[in-house]
Amino acid sequence: MKALPDRNLWKTHNFVAGIDEAGRGPLAGPVVAAAVVLPRNYYHPDIKDSKQLSAKKRALLYRVIIQRALCYAFGIVEPAVIDEINILRATKRAMSHAVAQLSLKPEIILIDALTLSDIAIPQQPLIKGDTLSISIAAASILAKVKRDTIMEEYHSTYPQYHFNRHKGYPTRLHRRCIQRHGPCPIHRKSFRLL
Asked: Is the pTM for the entire model greater than 0.85?
């Protein structure tokens, strides 16, 4: 990843935050956003969009990122709130919450294709930002690993749904489980479950 957006901003800014989310598409579980501020001119050849990485590689990079980042934070919005306000607004709320939790105030935010109207920090939305920006890619890895961990924990509460295997996404296995058992408390009732 060339990470040109980050490099350009690092010429004039010390604290550039990348933001991304995991969990907009699943039928169950929360949407999780991560915000991360990397050191200026940080580079790691393996950090890229979390969807291009294996679960094992994401777990390794998660540890690298949290050790090297100047700061990072998460925002989590639960299924009941997603049902109440819709997934797009829930995603933006999770992102805003993640930014608010950062221990350093970013000077500018790189964000994957969205803007956050409730945050008074300059923002640069990037289409396919997780493939262009190392900061957004790092945030995508943090968000994905965090959400997968949450879904694996839910598996122990609701083993009949096999959340450890599909993480709440609309797979054939997941839909079969919903058909057999009906929705559980972490299913998004506003989504088409079957």
From this structure: yes
